DNA sequence: ACACTCCTCAAGTAATGTCTTGAATATAGC
DNA sequence: GCTATATTCAAGACATTACTTGAGGAGTGT
C-alpha cells in the first residue's frame, strides 16, 4: 500500500469530479440546479444549448456523481446529488471571484454596471423582515419559488415583473432577490423599480446563500 | 446586458478554475500545497513526475489563480493563493468521497485496510491533549511541521519514525496525524507502534482539517 | 566570466473533450 | 398497437490536453 500507481488512481478520482465542473455549460447547469430540480428541456433553454448537448453534459455530471435523476412520466428530472455539491459550487465561485483576473470584467459585461445598484446584507434583511418594514420579492421563476424561498417573500417572476409592480404596497422599500450574485433577475427588477421612483435594493447574493446562512426559509404554498 | 454570449463567457471562467483542478496530478499538487509552500523539485518528487511536467502543471494552476509563487535564490516556491483554495479542495474531496462510486475501493487500494485502524476525533483529541494524557506525534516531513502543527505535538517524520519510537514516553497512548484522510503516513506510524505493543490511534483527517475547525495551532520552533 | 543549479518554454505525439446531426429508445394516452 | 413527446445514443469534425524530450533563461558562487 502507498504505492505510486494506487495514489495516482485515487487522485485521478478527485480530478474526474473537478473535470465534470470544468466546463462553462456544466457550471451553468449546476448553478441552475442549485435552485431545485429541472427537466432536460428546461435546462437546455436555460443554458442555450441543444437538448442533445444538454443531455450529454448532464450525463457527464451524473457519471461524476454530482447530479441524480428521477423519472416522472416522460420527463426526467435532474437535481444535485446533495447539499455538499452546492457547497462545492459555492466554493468554486468564491475562489474564482477572488483569484480569476478577468472575472470582474466578465461579470460586469454580463450583469451591467452594479456600482449604482445598492445591495442589502442578509443579516440586515432578516432583521428588517422581522420588523416588517420591507417587502421582499422573489423574482425567480415560479417553480423555484415553490421549491423554497425566503420566509415572508412574495413571488413575482421577472418575466411578469413590470406588469405586477402595482400590486406591491406603496411607500415601503422593496428588496428583490434571485439565484445568486451572478443572476441578473434581481438587478433588472431593481432597475425597473427605481425607474418608477420606488425605493428598491437587491439582496446580496441569492437564495442558496440565504439557505446556507441558516436564515428562515419556507416552501410550497406557505409564505 | 444579460445576453447569452456574456453569460457563457462568465461561466466559462468558473469552468476554467474547475478545469485546473481537473487532473489527478494537479489535485495531488494542491493536496501537498495545502500543507505549506514547496519548490518545484520537491513537488515533482511528491507527485512522481518529471520536473518539466510538474512545472507545466503548476503553470496551469497559477494561470487559474489557484497558486502563487515566491522566488528565493534559484528556487521558486509555490503556495496556494489563499485559504479559500484550501476550502475548495476540501469541498471537492468531500463531494468525491460522498458521491464517487469507486472512491472507497481506490482509497483502500492506496491506504490499505483501515478497518482495524482506530481513529480518534478532533474534539476528543483536543480535550485529552488539554488533560495531558496523550502524546501527539506529527509524522509529516519536518518542513511541514515547522510551517504549522497541532499545538503540543512533537515532530517525528515518518522516514525516521521507527528509529525514534524509543523517545516516546512509555505507558501513554500515542496519536499520530499527517496531511489528511488520504495520507498514509499516520497509518504507517500507527501500524509500527501497534506491532511493538503500544497503544496508538490516528487522528481523523489531518492538519488542514484541524486548522479549519479552529483548534489550537502552533508554528515554527514553538510547540 | 565561468560553471552550476533550478526552473521554464517549445515542439511533437497520442489521447481526450466538445458540439453537431440524425437515428434510436422509453413512456403516456388513445 | 400506434402516435406524440421526451430523452439518450452514435458517429464524426475539430479543438484541447497530458506528457516527453531537449533547449533556454535566471540566479548563485567562485
Architecture overview:
Two copies of one chain form a homodimer. With 223 residues, the first copy, chain A, is α/β, with parallel strands linked by helices. The first copy, chain A, has two domains: 4-89, Arc Repressor Mutant, subunit A (Orthogonal Bundle), CATH 1.10.10.10; 112-218, Rhodanese-like domain (Oxidized Rhodanese, domain 1, 3-Layer(aba) Sandwich). Helices cover 50% and strands 15% of the residues of chain A. The first copy, chain A, has eleven helices and ten strands. Chain A has helices at residues 4-20, 24-33, 40-47, 51-63, 83-99, 103-111, 122-131, 142-147, 161-164, 185-195, 207-212, and strands spanning 38-39, 67-72, 75-80, 119-120, 135-138, 149-150, 154-155, 174-177, 200-203, 217-218. In chain A, α3 crosses α4 (51-63). The longest helix of chain A has 17 residues, at 4-20. The termini of chain A are far apart. The mean pLDDT of chain A is 91. Chains A and B meet through α1, α2, α5 and α6 of A and α1, α2, α5 and α6 of B. Chain B binds a DNA duplex (30 and 30 nucleotides) through α4.
Topology readout:
The structure is a homodimer of 223-residue chains.
Chain A: H1 4-20, H2 24-33, E1 38-39, H3 40-47, H4 51-63, E2 67-72, E3 75-80, H5 83-99, H6 103-111, E4 119-120, H7 122-131, E5 135-138, H8 142-147, E6 149-150, E7 154-155, H9 161-164, E8 174-177, H10 185-195, E9 200-203, H11 207-212, E10 217-218
Parallel strand pairs in A: 4-9, 5-7, 5-8, 8-9
Antiparallel strand pairs in A: 1-3, 2-3, 6-10
Helix pairs in contact in A: 3-4
Chain B binds a DNA duplex (30 and 30 nucleotides) through residues 19, 23, 25, 39-41, 49-57, 59-60, 71, 73-76.
